Amino acid sequence: MQRLFAEYQRTLQAQRFRAGDLDLGRLDYHLPLLERLDAVEDSSVALYDLYQRKYVFLTSSFKFLLGYDREEALGQGPEYFYRRMPEDDLETVLDTVSRTLRFLYLQSPEERRDYKLGFDFRIRRADGRLIRLLQQVVVLELDARGNIWQVLIVNDLLPGGSQEEPSRRSLRHLRNGKSYLFLPGEAEERGGISTAAVDGRTGAEAAPAGAGLTKREIEVLGLVAVGLASREIADRLFISQATVNNHRQRILSKTGARNSSEAVRYATRLGIL
User: pLDDT band for position 161 (50/70/90)?
Assistant: First the structure.
C-alpha cells in the first residue's frame, strides 16, 4: 500500500505548472453548470485541480455517504474518501488513477480530453455500511502548455453494490470507442502501461474489463438497450428465447442490477456498451 500511495503521489506531481499558464477564469465559467448538475442530477459531482492538488468544486451534499463533511473533504482532498475505502478497493483506485494519468501524459495535449475513465469501488458510509460507487472521470481543462489541470469527476451509486467482488475499470476513447489500459491478458509496457487497444463495442477481450460479461452477454444487453424483447433478440441471434432469458439473468447477476434498465445504464456508464 505504501508503494502504491508513493507512486500515486509521484504521478500527481509529475507535471510542472506555472501560474501564468492557468486561465483562472475557466473555473468561473464552469461553476454555474456544475452547481446546476449537482442540484438536478442523481450523481455527485466534483472538480479536482491538479495544480492546487485539491477540489475546487465539490457536491454540496454527497448523496451516498450519510455523514459526509464537505468542508473536511475540501480541505483534505481525495484522501478524505480514501480513508473510507476497504484496502483492496483503495489499492485498485490508486493503481487506476496512477496508470491512467501516466497513460494520458504520453498522449499529445490535443488528445488528453478525448478519454473517459470509469471504475467502481466500495466505500463506507457514516453508519458503517459498505456501498459501491461508479466513478467517471474526464479531463475538463488543460493549461497553456497542455498539462492536465482540471478533471471532472461524477459518482453514481451502483445497485447491489456491497457484494464482495473485484472492482471493474475501463479507459475509453470518446471518439473511436476503443478501450485502453485495463485489458485482460495484456502485457504491461512503458513502466506499467499497456498501450494496446481493442474495439470495446465488439471485442471479446473487452468484456472482462467491464462487468465480467461475455461477448454474447454484451450482444444481448446491447439489443435490450435498443428496446428488443427476448423473442426478437432470439430471432436476431439465432438462439432460443430460453437462452436469451438465461443470458439476461446472468447479466443482472454480474452487474448487480435489479432490472434490465439498471444493467444497461451501468454498462453504458462503465463503457461496456
Answer: low
